[in-house]
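Per-record layout

source: Araneus ventricosus
name: Tigger transposable element-derived protein 2
length: 269
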Amino acid sequence: MEKRHGIHVLSISGGKLSSNPEEATNFFKKFEDLVKEKALSIQQIYNVDETDLYYRILPTKTLASRKEVAAPGYKRNKDRVTVSLCGNASGTHKLPVILIGKSVKPRVFKNITVKSLPVHYTPSKTVWMNQDLLIEWFHSEFVPSAKKHLKSQKLPIKALLLLDIAPFPPSEDELKDDNIQSVFFPPNVKALIQPMDQGVIESVNRKYRRKLLTDLSEEDGKNISVIDLLKQINVKEVVYMIDESWSVEATGIHASEVVAKYLVTKSNQ
């Protein structure tokens, strides 16, 4: 289409994160030692990563003519939740989405038991993961779920959780349960080796946006603007849309599998 009609895709907004290849290389050594010491398979290697989800925002790309180098935007809606995704490197075990909102129990959850939701909903004033939430999730959700999966696969009950360094992270000892332990990636390597950041989060986000646009299009003809329709989207609807987006990730966490297989193969050489 670009060659025939002179149309190309423009990003309305965006940015690029820095990365540190040297730190990534140093991390490989630590990872290799752990894999050898624990004799881990890719089913026993997990990754969790978070992203902010501005759940009422429209896509940030549009079609433009060849002469256009910028695209006018619209006021960005700042209503957001934090979404964290966790799964193992083989794609055989995906945990429920962690969804962090501001309210302890949003009004739209009336007559709903939070534990009955398909996601792990938890509140935070900053709408970000913090030490207490991470420690609580690790021991109450991750460890029991990982143990259950490994037992069902007749694998030794041992696992390694890779995660990004938060502004004020807990110690690795606080995220440990017998042979299930955690390792933090060093700063500024996320774009290089964070498995969930190799296309998994982006893919789930795209599926959510597609679902959002589909739902909006179904409301077409009701004499109400798109902006007004977006304002009606609530956290309860987000819960089910993001759960569906994660559930239909066809090949599991395929990007994580590629990265982890490389690391495990490298460590066993």
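summary: Residues 39-266 form a domain with the Nucleotidyltransferase; domain 5 fold (CATH 3.30.420). Helices lie at 2-5, 21-38, 131-152, 190-193, 200-218, 226-231, 235-247, 254-267.
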